[in-house]
Amino acid sequence: MADSGESQMKIVNGEAGYVLEDVPHLTDHIPDLPTYPNPLQDNPAYSAVRQYFVNVDDTVAQKIVVHKDGPRGTHFRRAGPRQKVYFESDEVHACIVTCGGLCPGLNTVIREIVCGLYHMYGVTKVLGIDGGYRGFYSKNTISLTPKFVNDIHKRGGTILGTSRGGHDTSKIVDSIQDRGINQVYIIGGDGTQKGAAVIYEEIQRRELKVAVAGIPKTIDNDIPVIDKSFGFDTAVEEAQRAINAAHVEAESTENGIGVVKLMGRYSGFIAMYATLASRDVDCCLIPESPFYLEGQGGLFEFIEKRLKENGHMVIVIAEGAGQDLLSKSLESMDQQDASGNKLLQDVGLWMSQRIKDHFSKEQKMNITLKYIDPTYMIRAIPSNASDNVYCTLLAHSAVHGAMAGYTGFTVGPVNADHREAEQGSNY
User: Fold this and answer.
1) H helix or E strand, kind and range, residue 100
2) DSSP conformation letters of 170-221
3) Which residues are the active-site residues?
4) Which of 98, 395, 405, 412 is the most buried (most CB within 10 A)?
């Protein structure tokens, strides 16, 4: 991953164009830290792990398709348990915080960090920070135990609460220091991970033995390098319900049109995957592909053609699609939310009204249009089986990395192999 711009990335160059974008380590600012045998090697439940400890030099290639004479390319440090760790179980005092919008799988990640620390490493002191970043200095904490988190993966949302903004680096690190916390697990999107990188840098400046691990979160699946973000599979699956409802409404009336708006601020992965999975969608509009409404080759012409052919149609539109068509007339296009994201207008409502106005004005045919926006229903549901497994792997990768003394990193799969990379890099 690329650097956040505020710290010098650790780059290791090897032969044949091999480049390792390395992860910061506690020993970078606290030399001569003692190491301890990994408790996993004495845990009967994890006896197989002894054969599969990650070698300290193991890396994961960013690209697996290469030319025979080309460079070996960028690599990342491989995630997983190491033979030596830099924390004794009794000394670990961990905390978990969730920031930004909701996403299926948040509770699963929380659960598996707690259970991973407890069952794999014997860590018993884990705090939940209530209410996002500002919870470090303005709200109460929650004591997290395996018993407390046992069933939370069956619920949507986050048991810790969340918020946007509220990042005060000095106050957050003061709170971490005052509470004696030495492992910080941060779950959130691009703004959250940038904040995590700044927290790591302040911790490094104070020379504290505190590991900062990030688990990247975005339902939109728009994180570069990693294969997929958690919650995405669940979102695509749930979006099928909205598309099916739109299809039923559309085909039940003459010239029926069903419009479904799905999440996707800057990328249309949910909209496109839901479209491909459904097979009931006639038109999918995404931010990556500009479109226009009127004239030859425009959306209105396509709608009219489709209605004449089939008598009904379904349109899926990502929330970030067509924003350029609204920008001239809407003042709020330059406004931002507390996380620094551009505030988007409801392109689904706007598009639905433009379609109605066009066919009303042209008087070519009478249409019946139904608009469905399942955004908050999708965000708030529990994760499905696929995402539950994925969230477990992410959580455990973060735990293994922190216990091994790595800090200022995020976790995620690259080419189906989990890896650690420097925090803030692609955000």
Assistant:
1) none
2) HHHHHHHHHHT--EEEEEE-HHHHHHHHHHHHHHHHTT---EEEEEE--TT-
3) 220
4) 98
**What 8-state DSSP symbol labels residue 342?**
B
Cβ pair 260, 316 in contact under 8 A:
yes
Q: How far apart are CA 339 and CA 427, in angstroms?
A: 13
Q: What is the pLDDT of residues 310-338, one digit of tens each?
A: 999 999 999 999 988 877 555 555 565 55
Residue 271 token pair: 């909209």
Cα end-to-end distance, the chain, whole Å: 9
Indicate the DSSP class of residue 295: S
pTM of the model: 0.91
Cβ(270)–Cβ(220) below 8 Å: yes
Nearest Cα neighbor of 220 from 199, 234, 240, 209 is 234
Residue 226 phi/psi, 5° resolution? -75, 155
Place 9 in a pLDDT band, splitting at 50, 70 and 90.
Answer: confident
- Mean pLDDT taken over the chain: 90
- Distances, alpha carbon 77 to alpha carbons 60, 156, 337, in Å: 6, 32, 34
Query: H or E stretch including 261?
Result: strand 256-262
